[in-house]
Amino acid sequence: MALPPLLTLQDIALTFGGTPLIESAELSVSPGERACLVGRNGSGKSTLLKIAAGQIEADRGKRFMQPGATVRYLAQEPDLTAYPSTLAYVEAGLGPGDDPYRARYLLEQLGLTGEEKPADLSGGEARRAALAHVLAPEPDILLLDEPTNHLDLPVIEWLEGELKSLRSAMVLISHDRRFLESLSQATVWLDRGRTRRMDRGFAHFEEWRDQVLEQEEAEHHKLGRKLVAEADWLRYGVTARRKRNVRRLGNLHAMRQQYRDRNRAVGTVTMSLAEAEQSGTLVVEAEGISKAYDRPIVTNLSLRVLRGDRLGIIGPNGAGKTTLINMLTGVQAPDEGRVRLGSNLQMVTLDQRRASLDPTATVAETLTGGRGDTVTIGGQTKHVIGYMKDFLFSPEQARTPVGVLSGGERNRLMLARALAQPSNLLVLDEPTNDLDLETLDLLEEMIQDYSGTVILVSHDRDFLDRTVSSVLVSEGEGRWLEYAGGYTDMVSQRGRGVQARVVEKEAKAKSADKPAAAPQAQNKRKLSFNEQHDLKTLPKRMEELTAKIAKVQEILADPELYARDPARFQKAMDALTALQTELHAAEERWLDLEMLREELEG
Hints:
Elements: E1 7-16, E2 19-29, E3 34-38, H1 45-53, E4 60-65, E5 71-74, H2 86-91, H3 101-109, H4 123-135, E6 141-145, H5 153-165, E7 169-173, H6 177-183, E8 186-191, E9 194-198, H7 205-222, H8 230-262, H9 269-276, E10 282-292, E11 296-306, E12 310-314, H10 321-328, E13 336-341, E14 347-350, H11 363-368, E15 374-377, E16 380-383, H12 384-390, H13 407-420, E17 425-429, H14 437-449, E18 453-457, H15 461-467, E19 470-476, E20 479-484, H16 487-494, H17 500-512, H18 518-522, H19 529-556, H20 561-564, H21 566-601
Parallel strand pairs: 3-7, 3-8, 5-6, 6-7, 12-18, 12-19, 14-17, 17-18
Antiparallel strand pairs: 1-2, 1-4, 8-9, 10-11, 10-13, 15-16, 19-20
Helix pairs in contact: 7-8, 8-14, 13-14, 19-21
């Protein structure tokens, strides 16, 4: 006999600003059940999870939780300010009968000591502390909103194993397909304010969704209704795109086989130089390159990237992935060895910080460069409205200022503009951050259709499997090895996932048995006073800037502001641009200093 649900939501409705966000949502969580909550950005997933957690109250409907049941909620932006340290924050979540040692165990597994002060934490560190806080008591119900955000591959894989070992029931929101496929047993789809449930995991979601949408479309045609609503076009367009991607995956497998045949022995550059010198074929040739910042980042790496290759670079945070990309693209010189770039390269980098978008320009102006109403893609001219629809924008948004777009819409606009720029080398550093599943589909489609060469960094295993022909993996101590295929192919060849952190610990343990080079250690560089001061104060400054940006965006969210008060609109736009520029500079400075600190201490 099935056990009664621990938590139920019935006929939930909620309206924000006069617009219904959730109209009739249901959610039921049984003991030990692991369900994923899916839907497009802005559909209300996070809001529904907050209602389930009891953090906000619905306008209508009923929430019931079994008496005595415990629930823990992981927010996307956790608040640790009331606690003196990360350990105190995690221990505050423990109940009277919980194991106090588990708090330290989880912090250690997540790469924290417990002594960190909340004011000094980066976004990723705060996320890890929040995970330890909700996991430590092993509650009856875990409500997790984007638990993999800001996590690298080793921690994501550890988190998967940890969640599988728990007896807690779970509701997960995530844009990481592999994470959802691995953990979910049921799927709840929030669409147009209503929920549908499938008692199967996320691996079956897209097929189920397509069947539902195709049935709806058929019913629309039977009724003789013309599908003119943009929301309808956006929903039904997903099915065709996914079917096209199925065919593209077949082409990707063929490309990987060609790559295996071409590169049987990685690193034998001298023997294969004649083949690489074909006109227009060579994109990047690295021969014996090395880079170090008191610890090896890259050691004696030889690599060839040819036209049409899709190279994925993977490794834990701090492994030096961005430094490696900078060397391969000529932005940064290696300490040793040489990098030769092919002729006539035109490189486009996808800026996920969105700092390069002009908030005062319209969507159409951003795509056309303010010249006319057409874009040229692969030598073919296309009207900007049709091109916008390819990236899920409605025709009405052509004159919308970039500054009032949501974060997801800005991500899509960045993708559209990157593809519209003439290029034959696309460099993507963490392109999947904060993208919903539909936008991920678009990015995958863009990469699969792209005729040039792609170099990308990503922690998304499914995305790597769907896009790259080979992966370059950090093996620790500056060693990088290339494997043909995607992430799953790499695991099957390597025998394990990305665990470079473990490799480095083992190497350090071995080196501890050897005589230490005392004079060299004494001369080790330390952070200057100014660097230490910036490292401590920048997180608070970034938090203040983020809060100011949010306030300005609230002002710009008024769709009638421009018509009512153009001067105020322009002033807000100027303020937003200045704040975003300052935030970008602060983030870059903090990241540089944090990486330097890790290198000096590591």
